[in-house]
């Protein structure tokens, strides 16, 4: 009986070959990516990717080692499912990532990642998150007791609305923790509690949040890859480069030179009550996310059963609209202060560290800022280490600052009110850039 022959040598690829498989151009639109020098063909798998088709496709034709490490707590388990996708590896003469990337910066960040894991900064303090959940539930109960005890006159009605608006904002930050797999070591428990918090406490679908938010983290402020900047160009002209491009093309969907004014109308007050509120139902029905729809309905059933006897139909509809208005203002100002004033452009395929630093900024730490923003005042650290529990951001921040200083990268950190004002200032600046290009170029 003949002994089996040697296993065939793995196929070897160059970065030029890989870059051609970025799902662009005429069919067949192949999608390849690289993780730890291994080349994977995701041309079919991307539709079955648990994190969504688009987020993994955003790295087609690129090295995806750092985002793979950042997004997957249980890497050994994930690698088992990746085996059938493996088609080869980089040729020996090829660098481990694209030659255009800063080799020393990539290596230094990966060393920082190893240090963070050894320091235990990815391990959660579950008591912190349970106390946060308890404070949300107490505020929810206090809102109902306020109307039940004091009646439905104007003052208790408004107090209850503020308390419920706070519940919605704080539950938004908490669902964000579970959505990022930051609380439990097992992903299934994070997913389950995530559905409870975002579905039952907020009335929104976990699948919708996952679909949008993971794309945002993969390619923040990259037009056509980050859905958070999809308001360009229909409503706003964002970023210097994109605004000038829009002006040169003579495109005018809105009077962008006034966008810093109408932002106060169609931005913070309107996003949740006038857009998210109906779109989330369209999303779950279109994608047949029936489990998410069931969780959402439990929120509305509970809300109507508890407040309808106290307020009647008109009162409960008014309360719900007011709560969404408060939540919307809170959500938009906090989430946009870290990104809108930063660099916005097409994907240039720079390294993970630079991708996150050019698109994010921080807000000064304080007990209030931490609570008010759900620790998203540490947006830089959150983007670099998306599965890190938020109570550890402050511990890794000095290490990130040190790496920035070493490589001459600016670490943006500002007061809360300055961060809010910078949203308006950046919209004004990009609007003026658009107008100049529109009229003179």
TrEMBL record:
One of its GO terms (biological process) is unsaturated fatty acid biosynthetic process. The keyword Disulfide bond does not apply. The chain crosses the membrane at residues 128-151, 157-174, 262-284, 304-323. Residues 10-91 form the Cytochrome b5 heme-binding domain. One of its GO terms (molecular function) is oxidoreductase activity, acting on paired donors, with oxidation of a pair of donors resulting in the reduction of molecular oxygen to two molecules of water. Pathway: Lipid metabolism; polyunsaturated fatty acid biosynthesis. CDD domains: Delta6-FADS-like. GO terms for cellular component: membrane. Keywords: Fatty acid biosynthesis, Fatty acid metabolism, Lipid biosynthesis, Lipid metabolism, Membrane, Transmembrane, Transmembrane helix. It comes from the Eukaryota. This is Acyl-CoA (8-3)-desaturase. It comes from Aythya fuligula.
């Amino acid at each position: 009986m003949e002994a089996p022959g040697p296993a065939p040598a793995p196929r070897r690829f160059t970065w030029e070959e890989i870059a051609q498989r970025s799902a662009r151009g005429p069919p067949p639109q192949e999608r390849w990516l690289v993780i730890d020098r291994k080349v994977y063909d995701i041309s079919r798998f991307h539709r079955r990717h648990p994190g969504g088709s688009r987020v993994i496709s955003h790295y087609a034709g690129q090295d995806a080692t750092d985002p793979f490490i950042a997004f997957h707590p249980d890497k050994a388990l994930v690698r088992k499912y990746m085996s059938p996708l493996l088609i080869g590896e980089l040729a020996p003469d090829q660098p481990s990532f694209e030659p255009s990337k800063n080799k020393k910066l990539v290596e230094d960040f990966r060393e920082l990642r190893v240090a963070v894991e050894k320091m235990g900064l990815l391990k959660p303090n579950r008591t912190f998150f349970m106390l946060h959940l308890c404070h949300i539930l107490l505020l929810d109960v206090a809102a109902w007791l306020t109307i039940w005890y004091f009646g439905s006159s104007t003052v208790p009605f408004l107090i209850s609305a503020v308390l419920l608006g706070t519940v919605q904002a704080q539950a938004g930050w908490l669902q964000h923790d579970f959505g990022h797999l930051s609380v439990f070591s097992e992903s299934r428990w994070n997913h389950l509690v995530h559905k409870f918090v975002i579905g039952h406490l907020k009335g929104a679908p976990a699948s919708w949040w996952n679909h949008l938010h993971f794309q945002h983290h993969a390619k923040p402020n990259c037009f056509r890859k980050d859905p958070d900047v999809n308001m360009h160009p229909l409503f706003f002209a964002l970023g210097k480069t994109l605004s000038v491009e829009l002006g040169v093309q003579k495109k005018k969907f809105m009077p962008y030179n006034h966008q810093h004014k109408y932002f106060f109308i169609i931005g913070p007050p309107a996003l949740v009550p006038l857009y998210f509120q109906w779109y989330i139902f369209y999303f779950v029905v279109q994608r047949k996310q029936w489990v998410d729809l069931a969780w959402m309905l439990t929120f509305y059933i509970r809300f109507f059963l508890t407040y309808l006897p106290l307020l009647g139909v008109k009162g409960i509809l008014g309360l719900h609209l007011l709560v969404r208005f408060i939540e919307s203002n809170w959500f938009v100002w906090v989430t946009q202060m870290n990104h809108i004033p930063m660099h916005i452009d097409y994907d240039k395929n720079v390294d993970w560290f630079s991708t996150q630093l050019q698109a994010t900024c921080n807000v000064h730490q304080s007990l209030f800022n931490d609570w008010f923003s759900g620790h998203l005042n540490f947006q830089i650290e959150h983007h670099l280490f998306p599965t890190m529990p938020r109570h550890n951001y402050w511990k890794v921040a000095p290490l990130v600052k040190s790496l920035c200083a070493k490589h001459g990268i600016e670490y943006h950190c500002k007061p809360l009110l300055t961060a809010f004002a910078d949203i308006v200032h950046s919209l004004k600046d990009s609007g003026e850039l658009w107008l100049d290009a529109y009229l003179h170029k």
